[in-house]
Amino acid sequence: MRVALAWKETIREQCVYDLAFKPDGTQLIIAAGLRVLVYDVTDGAIQPLKGHKDIVYCVAYAKDGKRFASGSADKSIIIWTSKLEGILRYTHNDSIQCIAYNPVTHQLASCSSGDFGLWSPEQKSVNKHKVSSKITCCGWTNDGQYLALGMMNGVVSIRNKNGEEKVKIERPGGSSSPVWSIAWSPSKDEHNDILAVADWGQKLSFYQLSGKQIGKDRTLTYDPCCVSYFSKGEYIVMGGSDKQASLYTKDGVRLGTIGEQNAWVWTCRVKPDSNCVVLACQDGTIACYKIIFSTVHGLYKDRYAYRDNMTDVIVQHLITEQKVRIKCRELVKKIAIYRNRLAIQLPEKILIYELCSDVSSDMHYRIKEKICRKFECNLLVVCCHHIILCQEKRLQCLSFTSVKEKEWVMESPIRYIKVIGGSPGREGLLVGLKNGAILKIFVDNLFPITLLKLSTSVRCLDMSASRHKLAVVDEHNTLLVYNINSKELLFQEPNADSVAWNTQCEDMLCFSGNDYLNIKASNFPVHQQNMKGFMVGYNGSKIFCLFIYSMSAEEVPQSAPMYQYLERKMYKEAYQIACLGVTDSDWRDLATDALEGLDFDTAKKAFIRIRDLRYLELINSIEERKKRGENDNELFLADVYAYQGKFHEAAKLYKRTGHESRALSMYTDLRMFEYAKDFVGATDPKSSRILMTKQADWAKSSKEPRAAAEMYLSVGEHLKAIDIIGEHGWGDMLIDIARTLDKAEREPLAKCALHFKRLKRHDYASEVYSKMGDLQALVQLHVETWHWEEAFSLAEKHPQFRDDVFVPYAQWLAENDRFEEAQKAFHKAGRQNEAVKVLEQLTHNAVVENRFNDAGYYYWMLSMQCLDIGRESEDQKDEMLKKFERFQHLAEFYHVYCSIQRYTDEPFSSHMPETLFNICRFLLNNLTKDIPPGISKVNTLYALAKQSRRLGAYKLARYSYEKLQELHVPSRFQESVELGSLNIRSKPFHDSEDLIEGMMCYRCSTNNPLLNNQGSVCINCRQPFIYSASSYEVLPLVQFYLEEGLSDEEAVSLIDLEVPHTDQRDARWQEMDNSKLQTLRMGDGLDDAEEDPFTAKMSFEQGGSTFVPVQVSRLVLRSMSRRDVLIKRWPRPLKWEYFRSLLPDVSITMCPTCFKMFHSEDYELLVLQHNCCPYCRRPIDEQN
């Protein structure tokens, strides 16, 4: 830091109490004696303003620069315009001590010994507020919200814009330490408003707006009279009884003296946006000083250390842009940096820092040593174990423990010193003297080595990476480059003020001067470009440039020197330059030039840089050929030209080296067929044919398929032509080709057929397969396209294809729900089990999907198919009959459960309560331990409980609810079941007599319970009940069996005799037998009391614990009427089943397909609704 006096004025025998700058810095307002002086900064003119009658104590300028104010001991305030006209005066009761303008609202605060007032241009009156002590100083915050008042009693009072006190700061000294000056920091970087307070207890303190103190008090050696911040708040200027102004950091660290005077410094102000400080003294002296902040910094490779805010050191990594701040809290005088060491000289000591790790990007420094001594030196250098101090002609080498190890005294003052590396403890120094001598000094050697002796003073030095060349800038700004070993001057350049060798390339250096950056490679001409600043380092492609106080790393392409090497075909040197940093296009030019120069190694490395795999493959192939012994450089160059697009040059070289085929391949690959024809000529038909084929390939790839197909046909490439025609669906063109082909050409014909199949041209495909005689493929074609008639025709002519036709046909029928036809097809193909498997899968799916009606139907279908298989296959007869019985039961279970499921899951039911009641009982009576999948016992019991309660079967309902309690009930039924269980206990514990009578056995007349754990049989005679397949009421039917020796045909003939007992019977009964349905209908008369032989037989044989079937003889059969008997005429191997109706007045109908029995009225209604049997779904008009 240096201080220069700008100007000085003396106002004789007048104390200057206050100063104020206009915000733009063009005017300085001076409070001198009884007058206000206006000093013009530009020309130095002073203009006095009269208006006060006593000493002027204070002046202040508004932030907008339109007016200023002055306060005097005459108790008045005068407002002046910027044109020096007084526009307003107002007074206080005491002398005015200080004034301050609000920076935002331009409100004026004026303070006297007993009060302070707030005035603004909009107000006619001044708002005044009493205070308890004399006010000595005041100041507004940056946002204009608060006013701080410093008082004689050591108190700082912070008020809002209305004058109300918000914060009170009491200084420790009280009245013995009056607050004489305060200032708010104008810094915009701070998060809080900071107030600097100087008192006559010789303390400087800092406070937040809240009144909280920042840090500790700073002790002063004088009574401070004024405190003033720089425009950005980075420094503080203070003056007082020590008769000088001092510069401090914003934290209160003293940096130095600005100007010494002969009297107390009563006030000091910093010129806005500058480093000029104006101070005024008690003796009338006014002086302006310009502060020059010098740059204190150090550079080593990519690390740059510089001073910031005078007391901090910032280390910047120029490549990664990382920064780290080291706070020293004292004035930083010198900085040196080398490798992992950083030396900082402070006024009374030197701090040595080191990096925490060896990582190149590490930015964490820690203190290694402290040398607590005061040193005076011009230059400071640090090494691994030493520091070097330079003072004029003297160099001193000190260890980190402050031991002076060596000293060198030069013959002339030292102008430049630099560490050029070396092992730790033996580093080398490059020293330039004022007399032109250039020395090399080793830290561990007392004797300097003279490298060169110039005639002029040395200004800048640098040595190349290999230590063979030395670059010097002399005082005439001339760059001189020498060979160190031979002392020969290699070249020189004018207009240089700094120089640096590239640390990564021996032959490159750069120098700056006259706002230009100059890059020189080897002995080539200099490449020049604009650059503001001072070049201090050159690392790879990075130029380190210092501009004013800022260091930056500029990326400089090395294209110009690289091309200089390329012009001389120095490819390896050009590659080294390119590695420092060039653009991708520069890399490509280098790679291409090296390839054409047949420097494959350099070309390969350059192409790797730009990741050009195509050229790398070429270079690798050439290298492989060279390993195999090829050494024809012209052939290699021809390949290079071909890759570069210089096709005609490549063709000439191919021809010259005897490789015409390569030229032909090149032209055809590039679709340059005309050039290829010219190259080949008309003498080679084989080559012409190859050309035509390749031209067709190109036409195909360039989306001209028809032309390509025609070209392929012209050269006999039928397969390729067929593929193109088939892909584009040109069926007519394809059949023309197929018809012209010989039937022996099976491969192209087969391809034609495949394309026809894909195009769904069954007729053309059939014609091609017929031409080929491929019957197997023809059958498969008919099957795949579902042309079954043609397939059946072929199967009849060629029985070996029966399985190939009928099996897919049956599968197709099954997939289309035509199961009976599918069964016939499977039979034809001899695949009976296939039909069963298909139906089993469909049945399983129906159960899983809760389609129980379909499941019942599919199980009935399965049972009938099992019966067919058992009839045709004697080996499987027993197994199939067992399956028939099981599937019949499952069909009935799922048929009845469908109604229960709909009742529980759907909101409405079409069934009467009695029907649901009967269905539930039937299902529970017949369910064994193994419940079929999908059937829910919970749903069944739940439905039974609900219907039992409705119909009055309270005992059965209670039983159902009790059973439900033992099972896992779904949450949707839980509440209903619990409520029902409670409600049913309020009902009688018995069932309705009408319901019990409905369960009477028609053989033994025993009333059976509503639920029977023995199944659907009578508990007395074990006779099975016969149920209606719609309402599931017990039908008045009794099954009877034929005696031994009676055949079904004889039994039917005996029954058909219809021997009448009386004539009345003929009048009562009407039989409807239309070969489709067997129906018993009742006449109008009454039966007589004559005993029936069947009834006698039935009563005679009943009784006992085991079931005794009713067996009838010829006599009994002859006595029966055909109209009273229902016969289930099962196909073989099953026997027919016979049933006798015991109540002739009940009309019963039996389906002739599934043999299920119904009340006739129910059956007729269901048939009308569904147009088929509700159980087996046989259409009503279908022949049996």
TrEMBL record:
Pfam families: Beta-prop_IFT122_1st, Beta-prop_IFT122_2nd, TPR_IFT122, Zn_ribbon_IFT122, Zn_ribbon_IFT122_C
Gene Ontology biological process terms, A to Z: camera-type eye morphogenesis; establishment of protein localization; heart development; intraciliary retrograde transport; nervous system development; non-motile cilium assembly; protein localization to cilium; regulation of smoothened signaling pathway
Domain (IFT122 zinc ribbon): residue spans on this chain: 993-1038
Domain Intraflagellar transport protein 122 homolog TPR: 558-939
Domain (IFT122 first beta-propeller): residue spans on this chain: 2-187, 189-292
GO (cellular component) term, any one: non-motile cilium
Name of this protein: Intraflagellar transport protein 122 homolog
